[in-house]
Automatic annotation (TrEMBL):
PROSITE patterns: HTH_LYSR
Recorded GO MF terms: DNA binding; DNA-binding transcription factor activity
Protein name: DNA-binding transcriptional LysR family regulator
One Pfam family here: LysR_substrate
Lineage: Bacteria, Pseudomonadati, Pseudomonadota, Alphaproteobacteria, Sphingomonadales
Assigned keywords, A-Z: DNA-binding, Transcription, Transcription regulation
Entry keyword annotation includes Transmembrane: no
Amino acid sequence: MIEKYRGLDLNLFIVFNALLTHRNVSRAARDLGRSQSAISHALGRLRAYFGDELFVKTQDGVLPTERALELSEAVGAFVAHADTALLRAVPFDPTTARRQINLGLWDTGELATLVPLLDALRVKAPNCTIYSRPYTGDALEQALASGTLDLVLSAPVALSANILQQKLYDHRFVVIVSNDCPLEGPITAHQFSKQKEIIAIPSPLLKPRLAEAMEALGITRNIAVTTHHNLILPHIVGSNSEYIALVAHRVAHAYKETFGLKILETAFEIPRVPICQYFHRRVKNDPFSIWLRRLVCRTMAQRPELHFGPDNSFAAQGG
């Protein structure tokens, strides 16, 4: 049994995790406080043991091979369990910590979250940085399991029982129009149908919910433009009083402040969509993860509603 693991040690798995997170040897070295040559040497040992390149050089850094992705969940869980078992007495001190916070967010989530979160970090954890990236359903759970992502902020998504959730707030939908649009709220379904609608797909998880809600209400949508890029939406809406867009209220206020648009309430009731933060079960009791989840809850300026399962833990997906 011992011979099977000859050549492996915990430090190699820590290097593996850092490379998977940063996809760059120099950034992984900085994160671990080691030299690039030490990281390269550790990677060489990992390659020799697993008989695979694991991380392939690219112009921007390195990319994991299929074998590395297969190993990511097991290695991430192993490192996390080691941290919990061996270092459980070491608290997380945000005032002195230097680490990257990895968040799974789409651009509309960034609009609602990043500025207030950065303001909070500047005071609470001045040496921590944020790396925000979009995610896909297939990769979301793997990214949380491996530690590539610390948290995902998202509309409800079906995941395994290893992923826990905590509700942050509800997405309430409002209408945005140009400042010179004669319409005043609350806007009726008939008025909405007369305007030319601009749709910016917020995320693969939110789009079908909104479309289904509008269809259930029997509202005719006069769609002029559909785009995957939310950045263009306020520019188009602000360019002509005939244009209209339906967006989450937190996003609408960001657009209003930056682009001078009007926000109108609707006379028809669109079901709200809960936004939750998702994290892996392995970090439920991790001091850093606990601190981060609490910080996000407070930053959202909402009283967090905790979903408890039968074991009085956070609710699991698919459990």
